[in-house]
Structure formats: C-alpha cells, structure tokens
Protein 1
Amino acid sequence: MTPPTVNNRAEVALLEAFGNFRMEWTEISVDKYFAEPSYFHSLKTTRPCVIVGGRGTGKTTALQALKSRPTDTGRGVASDRIAVYLKIGPHIPNNFSGPERSESEWAKIFLNHIHVLLCRLVLDALAKQVQKPQLASEAGDFLLQTLEGVRPEKPVSSFSELYTKIQLLSTNIEEILNNTNNSPINTVDEWDRPLKLLCDAVIRPNNYKGVIFLIDEYENLLCYQQRAINTLIKFSSKYITYKIGIKELGWKTRGTFIAGENLRTPADYSLINIDQEQKADFRRFASQVVQRRLRLVDGIEKRDMQIALPGLKAIEEAERLATKVPSPLRMASDELKEHLTSPQLKKHFTWADELDAYVIKSLAEARGVPLAHLIRELSLVAPQRAKQRARNYRNVGLYQLGAKRTDIKKYYCGWHTLCLLSGGNIRFLMELTQEILIRHLRITSSLQEGVSQELQTAAVTAVAERNLYELEGMTVYGRRLIRLVQALGTLFSACARDGFRHTPELNQFTIKDHENSNKDTSSGVDELLREAVMHLALVRMPTTKRGDTSQLMSEDYALHPIYSPFFRIPFQRKRKIALRGEELLGMSKSPDVVLREVLNKHRLRGLFADDESSFQIKLDF
Amino acid sequence: MRVYVASEEHFAPIVKGDPSLLLYCSGDESRTLPEYDFDLPTTVRTAAVIAQSDNVFSLEGDVVAKNLLVANPDAIYAAVAGFRQIALDITGIPTPIWARFVQLFRAYITILYTAPKGYTKSKIDDDDFHDDLTETVYGLASLPGFKRSLLLEDKKRVLIPLLGFEGARFALIAKQYEEYAEDVVPIVGVPGYRLHYPFLTYLANKRVLLSTRSWERVKFAAAFDPFETKALIEKIITAGRFESAVVAPIGTKPQALGAVLAAIDQPETVELVYDFPVRKHGRTKGRRMTWVYPINSAGQTSA
C-alpha cells in the first residue's frame, strides 16, 4: 500500500513526528523523541547486558540512547565511559564464510576484523567527542603490533596517525577475504588484548575510564561469529562492557571458544527481555511515547488517549453491526424474554443483554436444538456460570453479525485495542497511530476531536496488510512466511465466522505428534517457526522455559495480533487447534492445497457449511 | 564500447595461430550450450565449467582442472595459463563464478551471452515470477572477489537494484538495506529482450516499487547492454553526489556484467550485493541471439 501523500502542514508535522518511528532513520531523533522504557535503568549499569526483543520493540532506540554524543545529555551509562554503537549489517557476516577456509581460520580472521572494527569505532567517537584527542604512543605501537602481527616500522606519534593506520588494516582484511593466497592470518594470544591496549592507548589518555560496545542485530552473525564475540564478553576486563541487542530466538549459541565455557546469566551478563519487562507497563509507556510526539504536532501537553481514540463496548459494536431491519438483536432479545416465563427464570437471566440473547439463540440454532432447551440447560447452572458460558461466545456473535455486511465486518478500535494489536511492539503502535491520525486529519484537519471507530478500523486494517507484505523482505523465508500467515489467517477467520458450531475463538495452534515426525520435517518446522517468531509473523506462548529453543515444536503459537484486522480474527489469546508439522510446512509452500485439506478435516466436527462458497481462500502468494 | 551479435569473426585470433579458450557451462536450458549460428575456428579450445557450488568449480574438456576455488585466483590463473584470449559464455555460468573471471581476466576476456526465448510462468494471478525461476535464495553476501568488511553508516549511499522479474528478490534487498541507503534508484531493462518485458518487470516489482516510492526514480538501460548499465550506475552516483553505491544484480546477466565492470573500475565506491539464488530447472525456454561484449581493455572484438 502506498504511504499517504502529504497534503497540508499538519500532516507534514505529523509525518515528521511519527514517520521516524524507525529510530535507525535518524540519530538526532533520539534526543527529541526518546522516552525511557521501564527497563532502561537496568541497561545503564556497567554490567554486560543482552536485550532481547522483536523488531520494533525498542532495542535499537535504547542502545542508541546510550551512545556517546558530542552534545551528551548525560543519559548514557556513565559519562566516564565512551559508548560506541555497531549494527551488524546484512551481508557482512556471510562475507566471512566460504569453503576456501576452515571455520577456525575464519574465526581468526573474523576476530581480527572485530578488533579492528571496534578500535575504529572508538577512534571515530573520540575524534568527535574530544577536541584534541591524545595518544599514549607506546600503547599505540603495541596495539598496532597486536592487530597486524608485526611491529610498526616507526612508532606511531599521533592520534590521527594511529587512526589512519587502523583504517588501513580494514583494507588488509578485505585483501584476505578476497584472496586465499595472502599472508598468514594474525592471531592474538589473549582474546581482548587489543581492546585492553586500546584503553591504554586512547581511552584513558582522554580521561575516560573505559568503553561500552553497543552491538545491535546480533542475530545476523553466523554461529561461530557469535561464539567469537561471546568469548570477548566472557573474558572482558572490567573497563570494557558490552550491550547486545538481539531478536527473540536470535541466539545461535551461547558457547565461546574456550571449551566448556558458555555465557551464562546472571554470572556473565544481565538479560533484559523486553516483552516481559514491558508487559504490565506497555500502555503507559506507549501513551507516553505517542503523547510526546503529538505534542510536537499541536503543542497539547497531555491528552487522554482513550478519548482521542475511543473504542466500543461489545454491545455498542453489536448495535452498529446489526443494521438489518428488524434488528436481529432485538428479535433475539424478544424471543428470549418470551421463554423467561417464571420470575425465577427472569432473575436467572438478568445479566443477559441483547447481544447475549443473540448469542444464546445462535448457539441453539447451531446445535440444532430448540431455544427453550438451551435456556433450560443454562438455568440449571449458577447465573454467573451461565453468563460465563454465554459470554465465551460473545465475540463469535459479533463475527456472525458482521459476516454478511459489505463494509465493516468487525471493529478494531480504541486505545486499549491498539495496544493489544501492537502486541507490545512500540513500532507497530506508532505505525497504527500514525495511519489513524493521518486519515483523521484528511477529514477533520484537527487532532482535537476523537477519531471515529470506522476510521480507526480502516486504518488498522491497512497497516495490517502493509506489514503482512513487508514480511517478504525480512528474511530469505519471506514469501513462505507470508503464505503461512495467509493460510493461518484464513483458517482462523473461518473458525471465527462459524464459531457457534465448535470451540469458540480458535486463534492459536500447537504442533501435534512432533515427536513422531521424521528428521527432515522436524528440522523444517523448527526452522520455519524460528524465522516466523523472529520476524513477528507468529508469537509463541512457551510451555517450556523461555530460551530453551530445542522445544520450539512443543509450544503454542498464534499469529501476531497486528494481522488480526486483516483477517478479522480475535487478537487476544483464546483457544488452540492442533496441526501436524507437515501441515504447517505445507501451508508455507502450497497453502491453497494444504489449507483446503485442513479445513475439510475439521469439517468433520460440523465446522463449516457444505457450500464451499461460504468461505473463500484468497491466497495471492 | 559496443554490443555485437556474435559471429565467427569475433573468434578470429588476434595473433594468427594463437589458440583461444571458450568457457561455458551447460545446464538444463538449451541456450547454455555453445551451439552458435556459426562454426568456431579450429584455434578455439573449449572447456565446460562444472559448478559444484557458487564458490567451487571444475573445468572439463580441452582444459582440465578440479575443484577450483573462486577465492583462489592463483589456481584459476594456472588453470587457464597459455591462453592469451579467453571467451566466457556466461549464459549458464553462475554469477559468482563468471564475475570472478571478469575481475581476473579483464584485460583479455570477451563475454558472450544468449538470451532465452521465454521464461516459465505457471501462476496467472501472480505477477512475480519468483516461484517459477528460483528454488530458494541462500542469503545476502558480496560476490566472491568483491567482498567488503565494512558497511560504514556515515556514507551517503544509494541502493541500485537491477530489476528482473522477481519482486521477492527486490523485496529482500530493499528491506535489508533500507536504513543504509539514503535513496533507492532501480534500473529497469529498457528495451528488454522482448517488447513487453519492461512491463512485466514493473508488475513483478510493483509492491516494493510502491512501498519504497522508488517508482518515481526508476532509470532505464538496455537489458542486454552492460556498457549502458555501467555508465548509468556511474551517472546515478555522480548526479546524486553519493559517496557509495550498493548495487544488486538481480536482473539480466548483461546488466549484472555492467555492475561487475563498475565495481572493478570503482572498488571503493561500488559494492556488489547478491542473494545467491538456486535456479529452478526448466526456468527458460529456447534461445535468441548471442551477444558479444568485448570488455577487454583494448575493446578488441576477437576472442
């Protein structure tokens, strides 16, 4: 979908305030837009930290906020340490691999490269932070000797000379990458000796106590490369700290190059899991972030996001969806009242509103029993229990009411709902908010009024679709992930529409019989699930201890809630369906064939109408 | 430099009697066989490139060499020593291998390429040919011989994808580089091998062209002309005052050749990024004309 074109000044201001919801796009934005998340105090310590979270959860923002800047606002870890940021780029890790060398040879080259790279970053940062950076010449010589493997011909006499020589070392490494005939690869006897020498050569002479390396997108590294940096982390001196940003399931190994020595938490590093940290606090944090940005647009200090983005109660939504004349809600309510013939029955059903009446009536029809029969059944349990049983199907009632409409079939609106749709992901939340407000501005030219629920629903649906197709570029598995999401979305959408005939609100799945699958299927499913979770196609609800990735197939999964409006499915965790590993793999490769088989299989439970036109599989991948 | 339609004269030895070497790689596509409309002179020796992977290959025929590493130039030089003229038919040779040959033998190599008559397409409701042309992609890396160790974020950089019929490949590259490149300037092959091919290119890539808004900046170079492509890449860099360009050769092979030549001439500025696709069998049909690209330094047209 094309991003909205800009029509007026308010839109320009809004796009500028919200358009940078990808923090990577502008470094200046950090000072302007940064709102401290709840876990930030844990990140600011001088201990090594690993921060785990999906894309858009704020890892990069948090790491960027720690970086040393010329106009340092003192937000960083400690002003006596220089903090430098490194993002692991998309193709660089693969450049350090190939059949021409063994893994141990590649490891030596890579480690050399990392040392040179980290030195360069520190020298860059010092050149910007310090007016006339100083050099301890002897340490500088030792540093060059350690990196190059040979003593420099003449001593290095200045900071700029050291910087130039270290830049040249990058060129040398590229020569090695492109030519197997080159000279032997330099190795160091102590893992972090170059970095210790760096501290002696340029960090302490410039009145810094130590250095912090902020390494982002750690998941892009190959396994042996992670092992190399794990080794640096494990054996680093107290003046060198690492803060690592990594996606969920992005750890390929916690091993190091020392046999038997792995990275362990909390002994070697603190672990910050953004999902868990922000779970309770996300709405407050999100409100803070959004309001900060909106203030830049219209200057309003504080606004109530629930008034700005109003939601709908279930009964209100039902009334909007049930526009047929006569109203099916009114008819069901009247019919229910007719059956409540005694004062005791009336009292038993005082909790039931028009939507509840509609649900009870639909349940009776789906089961093929008279309404009176179901009412009698419900009257035999306590009112609270009867209410709970009926309300289990409340959303199903909404899906059914909307099913035959041509415009909005289900509402997705309200600040609370937006927070849930974003799944704790601040980037998604910002994207949803921006899309809603841009569309709103085009109609009203003002952000003061509340946004209509219809407009909110249209906007979040557009964002859902956009993010679905963005999966294509996230990973080499992109197209397969799109097919998988489309297939699962279609499956759960069909379940939502016909929920009265089976378990209500099926929107999760689990893999069954995985212990009996053959090795190829198992590893294929494992890989698919890992990629899907890492790139936010799916979310997982671990039944095992988090971090134990060997049990991926035994966990429960759901589509990321951001896609819910596109498929019109529930976005809160409800009930699950069992799928076989082969079915999941099939959905990612030939979704139209496999999905039809899965739908037909569940039809045995009276899930779907005989007429296949009651659901359409529209899979354009 | 000019593009020629291949003929016998392109194989006439520069020095009479001097043998020359024609390397090719035959696969399941008929156009990969060195079956031209003319007879090769008797001074031309031939050897088939057997690609074991994108990094390892062997030569069989008039020259025999086993398990040559793309990363080992000395071994490649030794394998073809004795030939002062080399013709490389890149039609069937994997891009990482022929790109390395071009880099190593630029001074005395001539390139040939035979376009297909058509491409396989099985899904009528999908504009993207990706599922028919490619099994999978391995992932992003520099081409062997062109590897870089750093992607410095503070350079003013442009992403230049050479577009083909596979929007999925453009999607991966555009997404992975969106924060490294200030701008995306795609190149579409116009004219294409056939009149309607540029339209297919737009359709196959429309989603990403829209999402990156790069449809507004598309530039055109002939799909079969590497020299025009090279010149266009250089012009994009200069006109935009970019300090660096990431070029993704995911379109036609002649355009990829142009990208390789640009990277050879400006190694500090032009970085090649590739996704290492595994090609599907039967992806193309038939053969069209064979073009000759005299890329050797003297612009000589003989192989």
Protein 2
Amino acid sequence: MGYTISLTGNPNVGKTSLFNRITHSLEHVGNWHGVTVSEVSKKIMYDHNEINMVDLPGLYSLTVYSPEEGITRDTVLRGDNDLVISVCDVNNLSRNLYLTMQLFELGVPLVLVVNMMDELKKQGKVLNYRKLESGLKVPVIPMSAKYHSDVHLLMDVSLDYVSNYKGNEIKLSYLDKLPIAQVREIIAENLATSRLPEIYACVKLLEKDEFVAERLALTAEQRRKLDLLGDWQSKVAQVRYEFIDEITDGVIVKDVTDEHHEMHEHIVHGVPIEDAEEKTDSLVDKHRRHHDKHKEKNKAYMQSYSRLDKIVLNKYLALPVFLLVMCGIFFFTFGFLGTLLSDLLDLFFMKCVYTPAVNGLTSINAPEWVISLVGEGIIMGVSGVLIFLPQVVLLFFFLALMEDSGYVSRVAFMTDGLFRKIGLSGRSVFTMLMGFGCSATAVLTARGLEDETMRKKTVILTPFMSCTARLPVYTVIASAFFARGKVLVIFGLYVLGAVVSLALSAFFEKSVKKLKSGKLSFIMEVPPYRMPTLERVLQILFNNAKVFLIKVGTLVFALNVVVWLLSNFSLTEGFAPGGDGSILAVISGFIAPIFKPLGFGSWRAVTSLMSGLVAKEVVVSSIESLGGVETLFYGEYASINALAFLVYTLLYVPCVATLSAQLKEVGAKWMLFGLALQLVVAYVFALIVRLIGLAFIVAPGITVSVIIVTIVAVIVTLVIINKVKNRGKCSCGCGGCSAPCNKKKDK
Amino acid sequence: MTLMDARPDCVYKIISTGGDGNQKRRLLDMGFTPDCKIYVAHTAPFGGTILVGLRGFMVALREDAASLIKIERAD
C-alpha cells in the first residue's frame, strides 16, 4: 500500500530531525526558524508499504504570513495526505496544540507526536499522555531525539491508525461558541465550488483570513454580511485556547518517581501504563496544594528565561559577548587550528601525491602535456582547494552550533532595533549569518521573511556576506603577501562585507523608493538554549565535509581541466605551457584592461575571477593551475594589488548557484540589479583600497591622518543629521507626539 | 496599561489584543489571548524590542506590537 504522510508543527519542534531519522537522510536542521523552506519529500519502504514522507516548514497557524508558511498550508489543504503527523514540543504544549486544533478543524487524519520529552524529564516532570489521548481522541506518541526514541513505534502506530481511520472522533465543543452556522449560510454556494472543508473555511473567515476569502471568491455583499457578524478574531483564539487548556489540564505533572519510572519503562521497553489515579486529600491539604501550585505556576512561567540569557542579553554584556563569540570562531577557524590542519594537508598533497605522480609520469616518459595536465592542472588545482577542507568544515560547524544552540535567535533579538532603522529586521540576521556559510542556501531561507521588500533587500545583500567558498582565496593570497597579518586581513574582509551590506541597506532604505521597507512589525519566538547531541555534531561535520568534497571532486575538478586546457594551448602553437599566448589569455585579455586601475589587469587574474562564477573555490584552483599567486601579483606594489584583488573577490558577483537562488526568490529584474550592484560596488571599493594603499606606501603619515579625519567627519555628520531629524520627535518609539513623553518611564 | 509599561519582575494578565486584522491575528495565534498570563523577560540592548514569556515559551516583540497588548497585574 502507498501512503503520503506529512510532518507539520510549529518551527523548532524537531520535525526535520524526526524526518531525518525516519528516512535516514541528512537534511539541514537548525534551532532557528526558517531552515526548512520548502517541501522536502522522500519515499521509504516500511513494512511492505511505500510511504512518501513529507517534511514541511514550521508554522503557528494555518493562516500564514510568509511564502514559506504558505507552502505548508497549501500542502495540507491539498488533501492528498493520508496522514498528518502533528509534532508538538512538550515544553509549550498549549501553543503547539493551537495548530493541531486547526488541523482538526480542517478534518485531516492526524496523530500527535509530543517531542523533546528529555527536556521534560530534566525539569522533573512527566507527561500523562494517556490523558491527552483521551482528550484528543487520536494516538499520542511521546518522543525524544536524545533518547533515540523508536521511530518504528511511531510508524507502526501511524500506519495502524491510517488503515483503520474512520474520521476524527474529537468533539470540538468550542465551535458551539462561534457563529459557524451563520457564516455557513452566507457562503454556502462558494463552499460547494471551492471544495474547501466547511468548518475550516467558516472559522478562518471569522479570523479574517484573506486567503480563504479569496479562495471562496467572496463578493462585496458577502464580505459586508460577514463584517456585520462582528469582530470574532479574539474570540476564536480564546475559545481554542480554553479548549486546549481543558484538555491539557493535569497532563504534565511534577515527577512522582513511580510515574517517571513507569513512563521510562513504557518509552524504552514498551511496558503498558495504568491510568493515573486521583489522590484524595483533606480539604486543607487541597487548598494548600492549590496555592502552592499557583505560586509554582508563576515561577514556572519565568523558568525558561535561563541564567545564560541574563548574561547574553544583558545591556552591557550583550555586545562584548557577541564580539567574543564571532572573534572566537574566527581565530579558531583561520588562526591556529585551521591553519595547522590546512598546512598538514598541503604537505600531504605535495609529498604524497604531486611529487610521486610527476616523478612516476616522468619516469615512464609520459609526454610533457600529460605531466602538466596531471601535475599542475589536476593535482595542484584541486588540492589547492582541498586543503581548505578543515577550515570550511570548521566554519560551517560553528555556524551550525550557533544556530542549534539558539544563540542566533538572541542575536536577532538584540539587533532588531538597529536593523529596523536600516529597513531590515532581526530575522534577516539568520539569513545573513548563514551567508557566511553558503550564500545560495542563505538566499533560500529568505523565504521565511514576511515582508516582500525586506525579502528583496535581504536576498540582494546577502552575497556580500563572504561565503566559505571565498575563504581559500583569502587564505592563499593573504598568506603569500601578509604573512603574520593574515588573520587580521581576513577578518577585515569579513567585516568589510558585513559593513557594506548593512550600509547599502541603510542607503536603500533612505533613498531607493522601491526598496523601502517602511513600518513592519516583528514577532519572533526565541527557543530555549539547547545543546546539540554528539550525534548531531558529527552529522553536521560529516554533511558539510561531504558537500564540499563532492563540489571539489566534480565542479572544481572539471573546471580546472578546462582552464588548464585553454591556458596551455594556443591556437597557433598547440601545447604552449606558461600560457601567455594561449586561447584563454586571448579571451580574458579582452577584458583585462578594465582591471588595470585596480592593479590586477592581467589575463590570469581575470580568468580566475571569471571562473569564480561557477563556484568561488575555483578562483583559487585557477590561480594555482595558472602558475600561482606570484604570476598574478608582482612588482613593487604586489601586496596592494593583492589586497585590491581580495576586496574585489569579496564583493563581486556570487556563484551561479546563488544567482539561481536569487532568481527563484526575487525574479530576474532584481537578480540582475544585484549583479550589477555587486560589480559596481566591488570595483569602487577595490579602487578605493588600492588608492589608499598606494597613498599609504608613498606617504604614510598623510594618508593615515586623512583617513582619520574623514572617518571623524562622517561620524559627526551622521550624528548631526540624526539629531536634526529627531528634534521634537517622541523618543520612546511610539512615533506619536512631539510633547514630552508621558509614558511610564520607570524600568 | 500595555505590555510596554510592564515591569520585568511581575506576572501580568492580558486583557485584550488590539491592532489591525493581520497584526492582531498574528499575536493571537502566538498565544496573546485574553486572560493569558505574561511577563517581560528583557528589553533589547539597543532598544525597540522586548522579550516576553507566556504559555511556557518566549517571544521577541517590537514595541509597536507590544503597545497593542493591554494588560493588568495578575497576582
């Protein structure tokens, strides 16, 4: 039998982890919203059944606020799901069940997974899942990735439920408190043609869901009639939560050792559980317990605000902590450890691959071009990138760690105030931080942003955040020309990338009409801190290493052979090593002069840059197979030219993967705009850097003073502009009066 | 008073949630319903956003959304 089973639930509840465990795949997981950005499906065989498992982006309600959430809604509405697995986080069951209620309103077959049970145990509580089952009338399966809960149990229960499914038995009594019948009457005909489930449509209209209103093709008259029913939005939410509170009352209780032991036995060994019994007490005890419960409850509300947050989000410590973290990641990856591993690999390739290969081929009298192809073209070129495996993996690892632990959410929270002023939101931080890993993937996550203009801006500006593929270029060139200052140079590049993207965003916000974000709000869940399991850590390392190796083994390898061919053969002389008369030299030679002012107007430099369109790693391998950095930058101003080249590489166009992701997210017009923007910005900044660099070499004292004066002047101007703009404006942020603010000021 | 006036060390109860259709519903979906207990955990270092706790989880909100939520003390 074939079934389609979808996983839904709030963001961050572990749907994707669960999906991966069921399907044994390695899809990307992160502890922040926005990672699963599209439907991911995989077919598996289970117990002689072919099952199409579908992982969906997380959402809080079937009324959606971003295209990403829209994907989930559309999939669930499609009706070709045989079963929906509603995954809930046991830590905030009520809010999680809010979505589940809507699934019941929709009338889909579902089973409930209550996830993260290990965290419940840590708090000394237990889940009376039987009680929950009797309230919801569907199977409830407690699970925990940490305990390696058996997914077989989930699959068995699910398949059993689906094959015997005869409709949802739960009685949604709260619907009686809503004017469903009246809504139904108004939209009766539309319902029939639209094929939307009745209850779902009626409740959604009471919630003023525009998507449903349009799907039903409501007339103005119908809308008017619905308006006359009054404002039911609050009421709908309220009655849903009241119902949920009833069902979840007493479902999570303080640990009593027997109950705990029972639950543990059940989860691990499948031992059946007796129904929890009500203990009878004297009236006094009952009253005291009630009062204590009340106090406990109050304390419990504040529990998730952990001690760590008191430091991380502290007014004075927040920024230092952030800088500490970022610098720590940096210096670890590019400094000691990363470099050590890279150098080791480099040594390995030279001693154990290149030299024996070349010697071997020479000894069997292989033709010169073969030796060159294998030696320079393939081995030098590919190994040039391969030795950065440790650094790439380390960077991705730290980024993933930041995501998984929940720290990125805190960063988003802290920066939102600032980002708002430049037309972005804290949520853009996710996408941009991810851009440090891979631009293409980062651009895809922009789908989770609600505002279209902000999405466009984020997508266009993310490539300025230097991705790991550009890393090899920085390292190779910085090592060659800046030796000890290498780490500082690389750090400076990353900072420059970030600064440029933020500055551009501010610029767009102030002046480019089409890219003004205007007033939007920001509501974001901040998950509790979570330490990733060892399994998860290894998964991240392995997954990223794999992706990198595949990319090198295919793209980089292939492109290297092509570059070698075109650069070592000329149309007139055949095999001509050294390359100045080769086909490639001629082609690139046409464009090269443009880059003369930047200090790298040679065909080799241009070729490397162009090859970067395919994949940024190729830039370094091109450089290697074309003869190394010395052939690109030489002479008196070699290091300045190299620096200009670095800046250009940082800011210029991304790889085709990113371009196609941009095309998908914001369309051709904006992608091309981004492309042009990057070329211009890259050129301008590289030029500025070169001019400053040259000026510095010629007249260091004057240059430094001029720079300092300019920076100070810019800052002073900005401050003055700011003060003038805000004169008479309300400083508390409500944007209202110009009179002294009389909102409560004591904090 | 609204959520903007809340002090960090006490628990409040939501009276109502204001705003236009989308904004309001978004807040309601996230659990900001009447009678719900809520507290302020933190204000962002650069201002403009607050971190609140309700129903067992935490949400970051901008001031404009927070000022739509009417509250009263709950002890």
Protein 3
Amino acid sequence: MKPAPFEYFSPRTVDEAISLLQQHGDESKLLAGGQSLVPLLALRLAGPSALIDLGRVDELRYLREGETVAIGSMTTHRQIEKDPYLLGRCPMISEAMSLVGHVAIRNRGTVGGSCAHADPAAEWPALAVALDGEFEVKGPAGVRTVPANEFFFSYFTTILEPEEVLTEIRLKLPPPSAGTAFMELARRHGDFGLAAVAAVITRRNGGIEDVRLGVAGVAAVPLRPSEAESILRGSELSDQTLDAAAEAVDAAIQPTGDIHGSEDFRRNAAKVLTKRALRRAFERAGGSA
Amino acid sequence: MMETELEIALRVNGKDVTGEAEPRMTLADFLRDRLRLTGTHLGCEHGVCGACTVLMDGKSIRSCLVFAVQAQGSELETVEGMAPSEDELHPIQQAFSNEHGLQCGFCTPGFLMTVSEFLDECPDPTEEEIRKRLSGNLCRCTGYQNIVAAVRSAADRMKAGSPRGDHD
C-alpha cells in the first residue's frame, strides 16, 4: 500500500518547524528518520495531512561529549553506535544501538524519533531511564526540560504537546570504572525485542557500590526498577542477590502477551535478562577487588 | 486527487537526473517508475524485507521508507550502477553468480547493496558477522547458505585485489 496524500514541508530550523506545527495543527506530524512513521503511513495506520520533515534541520544533529552527554534529536542510531567517545565511555549504548533493527534502519532512524515514538519495546527509552536521561523540548512557549521517567507517558505516548519538538537528549554517563551491559531477547537479530535490560554497575571491595537498571518491553513505558536496585546496592553479587533482584523486577512489570510471546514468557525473559545483564556489567566493571 | 508534483534533482549512479513526484511517492517508486531503474524491488513496502535497499550518500537505506522529495540533492547508488561495464560484473555480483547465491533473484539487488556497504566497512568478516549483517535482507528461495558463501567469496576476491570479471 502507498501512503495517503499529504503536504510536505522541509524547514531548516527548529523555530520554522514549530511555526509549521502551529499552522497545521492536529493534522500535522513531524518526520524524523521515518523508520517507524513511514511504515505507519504505508499501512495507512496514520494519515497526517501535513508532514514536517526535520531532515534538513542541521542544528539537531550533534553529540557533545562530557560527563553528561548531549545528543541532538536528529542524530542517527548509526552515528551513536559508531561514536568513539561513547564506545569508550559507556559501551552499553553502542551495544543497544547494534540491536536496533538493521544497519539500513539505523542509518536513517534517529534518537529523537525513537524517543518521541515511545515504543515500549524500544532500546532508547530503556537507556534513557537507566542513565537518568533528560529531554529538552522546544515549543511556542519556549524550552523546557523533562526527566526521562516523566517523558514516557504510555504506549506510544509521550508528554510532547502537538506543537513541540524534541531537540536534545541528555544522558548522565556512569563513571569510567563502571561496567555496563545491554541485553535483549528477540527471535531473530534485528527483530523487536521481547524484553531488554540495560544494566550499570560500579564495584567496590568486591561488591556492588551502585547499580542502575532500565527495562524495556515489559510495560506501557520503560521501567527503572528501583526496588531491584536497592536490593543490589551495597551487596555482593551472588545467585541469591541476583534472584532477589530478578523477583523485584518481576513484581514491577506488567508485560502484555501477544503472538510473539505470552505474558509468562516475557516475564521470564525479563528476569533472566536482568540477571545476565547484571552479571555482565559486574564482570566489565573495574574498581577495587 | 493527486497532490502537486515536486521537481526532484539528484545523482544516480554518477549521473545527474531529474524527475517529478508527489510528496508521498517513495524513493523506491520514484526510482522504478520515474527513472525506470527497476532493479530496486518492492517486497514488503514497510522496511522489513530489504528488497528495496539502495545506497544514499554512501549509506544503505530502505528506499521504501524515504520519500523521493527527501532525496533531493543526494547521491544514490543502485544495483544498476554496480557492474563496471556491459561485459563485466562487479566482484560481488560475480561471486553471487559463481556461488549460486540466488534463485528467483527478487531479493538479490537488496542483498548486493547491503553487501556492498558491508564489505566496504568490514573487508574480512567472519561467518557470524556476515549472517548478522545480512539479517535485514530476507530470501524465500535459497535458505541463505549460498548467499553467505557468495559474500565470503566476494570478500576474498576483493581483498586479494583480483581482476574483476573472473569466472571460476
């Protein structure tokens, strides 16, 4: 099937894009990488009468290194995947990127598009909650900053207002000595994940000093299971503590069963991935033995 | 009711071309319909099968997920541009032929473009790397075995700097 007709606009600045959103109202939609939106248009599950392409808004493509990394919303998954600073500083980001579809998808798909689309199974939302992400949003009234745990509202729904543009995603990188891991279960490489876990661990004296978790595909929004984190913080890494953490994740999630995986299957997957990701992150962490 | 068509100018396989398209016309349809470059195929038309894969500004893309108007001013490479001449195949094409890496050939152009980018980035891949990288291109005929062999053969051939157009 082919998309229904629409008017096409290609602004050069964020302000132009906002102005177009105001002009065309409810029937307009921003186009980022198109890897999620265009299939919806092709299958006629969405039919905006105006498409506002952010592809030529160059001010949205950047990556600013730092303890908190700032990523322009139109930066592609592939650019993030290959970024030397992030590869060195926080490998789980690149690991997660390599699981997003296939290279051709990642060459066009963007960080901002993924977050604004808010598929609960997506990798970016899980990374954002695990790394204390902040989203910078610009609209007619100006700029506001939204923390990741407030940004994702429900299935495919964020707190973005119709006339707002997501401009920047900020992630607080873990200390260089931290170990990070991103693990996902999918039937085939590149498929949508049935469950995915991002884990960050800093070690001290053989135990866990600090831990962060982000879980995707198990609820309407990505989860940061703070209960599981509390169990692990200050503890040893053992079968017992891992099992306890996995149980805490199980208690926090509400997966929906479907043709790709039943609720029970997804629950189990989330628990197993939690343990595996934590183990891997622990092994990768440096710090005093 | 047809929307107003826009004029699009871009380079395809090293040549400047122009054409017209409604905003909703995908790049895949534009290549096939307006430029008569029917080597690029339509399989699923929603980004999953890879049959429509082309290179845009050196990067593989799903041409069914890009609108023709978005390709304004870009540099495209399609399967039609791979062979250096009428008499000679690109080493990757030759390898697919030698290794019987195709049957009906419908998925093949998509594979060729994917492999072209892949071997450029990763000239000496392992079998696992090959299978992983090709997972975005679906084939209903071959079972992939000979496709993987073709990629291995192409990699060896191109690494060794063999003259193009070899027949084994």
